[in-house]
């Protein structure tokens, strides 16, 4: 008696089972099934094609070409040509890939997979319009398939067409709102288009659906950081780092979150770890160098910035490295080198709309008209206005400034003897060349800092506050909260209590604040107005106390006795651009030692944190110095002795 013989599975069933294993991520089982099957059925084209798919999934495109070629020899199925074409493309054989995929397109013009594959080939060939047409064709064949919308959105994002990419990915998401891949794509195209606030909820949806996926958590953490939700970002990135501790981007983002919260010792550990994981990455080297600079480790920071310049592979990365190294040189008094490196800004910041076509001015004397324009914040613009005086000796000048500065700058025109004209962007066409205000030290060859002060009387309003009794003190305690790393330079409002005990002082707020009544000392509110209105208010004060903001530049330009409360490792403008002056006779050494005096603004004194520390303790000493300084001034002390 004989038993029943087991029947072999049909070839099609084995190929399908193998591809199902592959789809589940079990490539080893898929390969095992196919090898055994093909020993018995060596003429099964489906099996050879499935084996080619396994090879491609494992990154072995060379083997995939041979395996798909074998399948095509046995049965010229159109989708075999798709696999063959994509494997050829992965090996860099663009034209053979196009020929293979074209067979599938011609044989099955209604198959969206063929058009999708052709789009990949056309993009690789640089034929972007053809690639877009292929994707649009695939989408028209399957308008309800989310995958087709996602492929087109990803292509548009890669082409820099962010707004279009967002619109298409939004349609993909609308087809199936719970699809994790669609949320992820939509978040990524929103991020690429600069809309991180809109991207964050979609990254959150992906992280919620995949709570143990380190990449999903890392993406969400980065989005939270960009939204300045630092505590949430820290928790999310820590979870991602625990799951995958050797991912450099995650460790770097975690370090940047620590930096934003003022935790430099924790930041340096994470940023160094990220850099050690990928020492050839210029961006990671720059992040590490930045925290070293903030910690006062100048030589180590310089080495890291120089290393980043060597490792940079893109224009943007090289420019950032040059800019950071230039800032370090400026902070350490090497001004000529610093200004030259600072010109790398031109590779990162486009000139204002409407003037990009103008040639750059080289700083040489000319009978033509040069447009000088503001590039960054109001503080930078105020600082670099001093160079206009040298510029007018070499050319006629048009000066283009933000609207909020127009009336202030108009007060300076008499000083420039009619050689400067204020213009709006619409009037910029009358110039023959352009130059950023921040480029003037380099273009004019004026390396060293120098003091410059217009007559404060030209701004008017000098007696506005003096009718009141007491020492009138302008106070600014925080910078722009939009700046990611503002927390280290700003004071918590509660710390102002250290200044509230000084007798004979009236405080004037020099920043807008909705809750002045809740502050620990009485402050008159800042009236609304432009820069000239603020200048007139400052001109009527006796002294100014401020953290590192535009207010210090304005008060210094007006010659107003000013005390800058500076963080340890602060901005280059207050580092080498200052000289140490002795304590006043009444200054207790325990209260902070010598002041520094700004070389840019002789009336500005600087007291800074003596060493890095975290939290409120870091400001105790500068605020104690400020309280004693104000007490001496209230008693009739001379600011020039302090």
From TrEMBL:
GO terms for molecular function: identical protein binding. TPR repeats lie at residues 214-247, 248-281. InterPro entries: TMTC_O-mannosyl-trnsfr (IPR052943), TPR-4 (IPR011717), TPR-like_helical_dom_sf (IPR011990), TPR_rpt (IPR019734). The keyword Ribosomal protein does not apply. Keywords: TPR repeat. This is N-acetylglucosamine transferase. The lineage of its organism: Bacteria, Pseudomonadati, Pseudomonadota, Alphaproteobacteria, Acetobacterales.
């Amino acid at each position: 008696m004989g038993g029943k013989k087991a029947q072999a599975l049909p070839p099609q069933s084995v190929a399908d089972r193998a591809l199902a294993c592959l789809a589940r991520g079990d490539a080893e089982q898929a390969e095992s099934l196919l090898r055994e099957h093909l020993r018995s059925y060596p003429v099964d084209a489906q099996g050879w094609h499935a084996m080619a798919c396994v090879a491609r999934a494992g990154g072995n495109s060379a083997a995939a070409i041979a395996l798909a070629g074998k399948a095509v020899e046995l049965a010229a199925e159109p989708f075999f040509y798709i696999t063959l074409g994509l494997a050829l493309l992965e090996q860099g054989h663009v034209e053979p890939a196009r020929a293979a995929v074209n067979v599938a397109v011609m044989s099955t013009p209604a198959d969206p997979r063929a058009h999708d594959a052709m789009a990949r080939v056309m993009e690789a060939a640089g034929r972007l319009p053809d690639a877009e047409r292929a994707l649009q064709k695939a989408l028209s064949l399957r308008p309800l398939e989310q995958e087709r919308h996602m492929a087109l959105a990803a292509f548009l994002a890669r082409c820099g067409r962010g707004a279009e990419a967002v619109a298409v990915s939004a349609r993909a998401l609308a087809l199936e709102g719970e699809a994790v891949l669609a949320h992820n794509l939509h978040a990524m195209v929103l991020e690429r288009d600069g809309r991180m606030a809109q991207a964050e909820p979609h990254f959150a949806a992906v992280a919620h659906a995949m709570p143990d996926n380190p990449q999903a958590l890392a993406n969400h953490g980065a989005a939270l950081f960009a939204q300045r939700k630092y505590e949430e970002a820290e928790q999310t990135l820590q979870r991602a780092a625990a799951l995958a501790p050797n991912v450099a981007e995650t460790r770097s983002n975690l370090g940047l979150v620590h930096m934003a919260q003022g935790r430099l010792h924790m930041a340096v550990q994470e940023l160094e770890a990220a850099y050690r994981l990928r020492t050839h990455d210029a961006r990671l080297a720059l992040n590490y160098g930045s925290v070293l600079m903030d910690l006062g480790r100048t030589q180590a920071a310089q080495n890291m910035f120089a290393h980043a310049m060597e490792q940079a592979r893109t224009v943007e990365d090289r420019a950032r490295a040059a800019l950071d190294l230039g800032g370090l040189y400026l902070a350490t008094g090497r001004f000529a080198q610093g200004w030259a490196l600072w010109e790398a800004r031109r590779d990162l910041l486009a000139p204002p709309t409407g003037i990009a076509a103008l040639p750059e001015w080289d700083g040489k004397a000319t009978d033509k008209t040069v447009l000088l324009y503001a590039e960054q914040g109001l503080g930078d613009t105020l600082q670099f206005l001093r160079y206009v005086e040298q510029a007018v000796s070499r050319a006629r000048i048009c000066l283009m400034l933000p609207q909020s500065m127009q009336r202030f700058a108009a007060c300076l025109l008499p000083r420039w003897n009619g050689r400067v004209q204020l213009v709006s962007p619409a009037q910029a066409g009358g110039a023959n060349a352009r130059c950023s205000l921040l480029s003037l030290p380099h273009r004019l060859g004026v390396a060293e800092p120098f003091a410059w002060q217009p007559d404060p009387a030209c701004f008017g309003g000098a007696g506005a506050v003096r009718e009141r009794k007491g020492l009138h003190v302008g106070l600014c305690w925080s910078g722009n909260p939009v700046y990611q790393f503002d927390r280290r330079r700003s004071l918590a409002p509660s710390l102002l209590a250290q200044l509230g005990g000084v007798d004979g002082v009236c405080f004037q707020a020099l920043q807008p604040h909705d809750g002045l009544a809740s502050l620990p000392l009485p402050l008159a509110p800042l009236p609304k107005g432009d820069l000239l209105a603020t200048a007139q208010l400052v001109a009527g004060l006796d002294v100014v106390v401020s953290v590192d903001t535009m207010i210090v530049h304005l008060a210094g330009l007006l010659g107003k006795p000013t005390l800058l409360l500076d963080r340890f490792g602060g901005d280059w403008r207050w580092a080498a651009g200052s000289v140490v002056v002795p304590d006043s006779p009444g200054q207790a050494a325990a209260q902070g030692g010598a002041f520094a005096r700004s070389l840019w603004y002789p009336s500005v004194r600087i007291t800074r944190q003596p060493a890095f520390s975290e939290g409120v303790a870091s400001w105790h000493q500068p605020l104690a110095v400020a309280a004693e300084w104000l007490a001496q001034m209230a008693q009739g002390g001379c600011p020039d002795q302090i």
